[in-house]
Amino acid sequence: MDPITQIIAANKVPVGTWGKLFFDYLTTNFAWFFNGIAQSLTKTLEGTIHVVLAMPPIVVVLIASFFAWYLPRSVKLGFATAIGLLFIINLGFWRETIETLVLVVASTVVSMTIGVPVGIAAAREALTSFGSGVWSDWYNVADHRDHISLQRPFYPRPPRWGGACPSVRCPWDF
Fold this sequence. Notes:
This protein is mostly helical and 174 residues long. The protein has 3 domains: 1-54, no CATH class; 57-92, no CATH class; 135-174, no CATH class. The protein has 6 helices and no strands. Helix 3 packs across helix 6 (94-129) and helix 4 (57-70) runs antiparallel to helix 5. The termini are far apart. The relative contact order is 0.05.
């Protein structure tokens, strides 16, 4: 090992120690906050699990199969969902399946609740830079396929009605 690599390896950054100190500080000084979040999430999730488990399993299977058929309009998916859930009931894993399903749906709702507004805000900020600087041609339609770039992505489609091309050479004629 060369001397520079030896110096770097010998003088380790104490990230683990810093992390432990940081999380010890958080749990010591903000335990009331984290306990409140944990209790509210626990009550919400356990309540949802209790509501779903209070229904007869065959009703839940029928509801899930209906949505699996109705949303994508797929009979195969609805049938497969029914067979799969009936098999889970047969194996005796119904409670565990419902607990897992509630956790997955809840985490999806939380991440979408945070992620969608953040994504929209980020996109709005990014869109303000388009139309200026290197992005000045962003909204201009390229005349030929060779003119397409990251800064000028739009390309005209051929007319659907069979009309004549307005230019001498149509850009869609390759």
